[in-house]
Amino acid sequence: MIIVTTDYISGKELETLGLVKGATIQAKNIGRDITQGLRNMVGGELKAYTDLMNQSRETAVQRMIEDAEKLGADAIVNVRFSTSSIMQGASEVFAYGTAVKFK
Q1: Exposed (0-12), middle (13-18) or buried (19+): which is 103, by Cβ within 10 Å?
Q2: pLDDT for 21-67, tens place per residue?
Q3: CA distance 22 to 31
Q4: What b/e string do you get for 50-62 counting C-beta neighbours within 10 Å, with b at 16 or more?
Q5: What are phi and psi of 80, to 5 degrees?
Q6: 2-102: which CATH topology?
Q7: What is the pTM of this model?
Q8: Most buried of 54, 73, 74, 102, CB within 10 angstroms?
Q9: CA 91, CA 103: separation in Å to the nearest integer?
Q10: How far is residue 78's CA from residue 93's CA, in Å, rounded to a whole number?
Q11: Rounded Cα distance, 35 and 49, in Å
Q12: What are the residue ranges spanned by the domains of the chain?
């Protein structure tokens, strides 16, 4: 599956199939909160949270791909990400784009 943030793929004529999306909601855990809280006081990257967000993006993208495969897509164009806080300590990562088929 080709995934791009542009609205085209060089050398390909595209047929639009529709919107595809994938999402996940991840919560922090108490162990990470303690260690990352200490890191926050002294400064530096919050590595555990970075890893959590990377994992969340990968999950959202995989779910978006599965949605596109159901439509018989060859690629997804105009891919975007959105995040939002759902509740204290939990965030949603949402990936979306346009499923296309090569003509």
Answers
A1: exposed
A2: 999 998 876 555 555 555 555 667 777 778 888 999 999 999 999 99
A3: 28
A4: eebeeebbebbbe
A5: -135, 160
A6: Translation Initiation Factor IF3 (3.30.110)
A7: 0.84
A8: 73
A9: 38
A10: 17
A11: 10
A12: 2-102
